[in-house]
Give the backbone structure.
Amino acid sequence: MTEVQTKSAAAAPAAAGPAPAPANKRRHWREAATGWLFVLPFAVLLVAFLLLPMGYALKLSLYRSTLVEGEVFAFLDNYQQAFDDPLVREGVVRVLLFGLVQTPLMIGIALVAALLIDGATSRFSRVFRLAAFVPYAVPVVIGTLMWGFLYSKETGPLSFDFLSSGVVLGSLGNIVTWQWAGYNMIVLYAALQGLPKEVYESARIDGAGAVQIALRIKTPMIASALILATLFTIMGTLQFFTEPLILQPLNPGAITQHYTPNLYAFHQAFSFQQYNYSAAISFLLGAVVFVGSYIFLFATRKRSALR
Amino acid sequence: MKASRGSVAAHVVMGLMALYFLLPFWWLLVAATKDNDGLFGSAPLWFADFHLIDNLKLVFTQENGIYLTWLRNSAMYAVLSGIGATIVSALAGYAFAKLRFPGRGALFALLLGLIMVPATALVLPTYLLMAQLDLVDTIWAVILPSLLNPFGVYLLRVYTHDSIPDEMLEAARIDGAGEFRVFRSVALPAMRPALVTVLLFTMVASWNNFFLPLVMLSDNQLYPLTVGLRTWYMSATIGNGGAALFNVIVAGSLVAIVPLIAAFLLLQRHWRGGLTVGAVK
């Protein structure tokens, strides 16, 4: 590194001199060609596995497969069907309710944990940081399996059925909270570590307590990180899929095949071969998540500009 | 005095939270030492008759040792997707940060715009497109889509832009190095911390991936651990004869997460590094 820097210093006068025009042009051309060559693999993948599937899903969703005529253009029929489908509506209401309760709860836990480890410097706080983050390193499938055993009356510590229809949504929410709270804690903790210490040093001298500093000074100052964490959580909850799919066999009556919109789309495609209808549901869900994220970011941009 | 009371309260809260986060791991560790009867008949959070070795033997011999195949598949998908995605992201991230070429701004804007497209919405159309190319039920159906990592490109662009001065690259060019040589010998070594982070994250994401292989694969010889364990769990719950029993699934789960936890503890710094870069922007 130092070697390169000395070279750079030695070469500086030469670079400052007027370069011959044709050589310069050739260099620009070469740089552009290299640039394209370097982004080419990424660009190809972007087209093949993002733009093309998106376009294909849109096309599928506008067609209908019929026995007599094969694929026929149906325009918005599939979407109309999705809007009128009570099973879709049930799933949408469920994930919205889920997101509304689970998101603030989990971000709240993550924030409290982040403020605690930011305030404490003991060895235990380092151990705690690890403990909170480990669930994130575990596959969702295995995290769900473990909680499935703990929830069961036969293999769990409590003789209470956590998967009965009244409480199953909360039990699923607990799995998500367990798995992602530590991840969000680290994100928020990183933001807290980036704050200038002088700000709350002076508050402390003015007599503010640790709790006051945490709530009144630190929390507003990491607003942008909080917003981002909230956004990613909401996006995740709308796409809720793996946890209910894994636990479905434990109580198929409570966790139905249309439990979440994603689960419904999955079963429509792979259990009933309704690819067109499934594509319409997926596309709609994707569009809601996509547009929703940008509206959310736009609506909160003043707050995030604080940082 | 007041401060120490607050500190005690803080540690009590942290202690309770730590218990919550570690509870399932404790249960898994204990449960993996029990046979199927012990799983149902003994206190869930404490040891009973010790059958860990028997369980591990069962894990690796069930269905002619298919668990080992799944373990190998998971490792192969993680390594190939991880290395591939990191190379692709490094090339693109460097080009976006340091090379001027027509269309750069537009392509990068496209990347930023599409970073929010939810991956799950794309699995079905990707499956149907792959089916037309006869790639479904091959390892490529799992590996190729995993090579696309817009967030990795973004992260490496930010890192390269902020940490590699233009003069450093310019100096190498003036010394007569070609563009690829500049990338390989000057930029790549300087990008290393961010590269390790992207590699680690894509490998873990691939090891943990479930939806994509679930949809793409039907040959159980190609399954990764996540999909394989789910099929065992399904048949055990439904109670098909001959399938793995719960004790095998529990021990198999333990074996599956040990490498992850080891990697996580050894490479802590890089985990945190990656999350921090993501949090700042």
Remarks:
- Strands of chain A lie at 63-66, 70-73.
